[in-house]
Amino acid sequence: xxxxxxxxxxxxxxxxxxxxxxxxxxxxxxxxxxxxxxxxxxxxxxxxxxxxxxxxxxxxxxxxxxxxxxxxxxxxxxxxxxxxxxxxxxxxxxxxxxxxxxxxxxxxxxxxxxxxxxxxxxxxxxxxxxxxxxxxxxxxxxxxxxxxxxxxxxxxxxxxxxxxxxxxxxxxxx
Length: 174
Fold this sequence. Notes:
The protein is mainly α. The chain has one domain (35-171): Arc Repressor Mutant, subunit A (Orthogonal Bundle). It has helices spanning 12-40, 44-55, 63-69, 74-86, 108-130, 135-152, 164-171, and strands at 60-62, 90-94, 102-106. The radius of gyration is 19 Å and the shape is globular.
């Protein structure tokens, strides 16, 4: 009979690092949401959907690819896209190359919303994330984030050094 293995408890330094990361994971999304709600009347997830479409070829993506890029489930994305459609920023249509898929398309009004919202969002990201760090720490943050993401999901597109448009094109079958 085998005895259960003792858990690999965190040492004091690991515990401090974990608590700092856990706090960051909770508070940064709230801070970004607050800035976007205040300045643009949209959530961070809605912004990620609009921004993902704005970087896609033809401002168009399959809903499944968009869900992956925005880090959301298809049901959540569908609800958000419905709200964005009501505002005239996104429209949906069947994929002409494969009718089993639905495309999300950024409208001209949606493009204008992203263009108007991006400067304030980028400033918030800079102020909250990059201004407190040195250039070396920013590179370390990238490397640490990629290492952790590789442990979680080795296929995640953020692990690529390619521009997002190249990653998107490789995700969409011709």
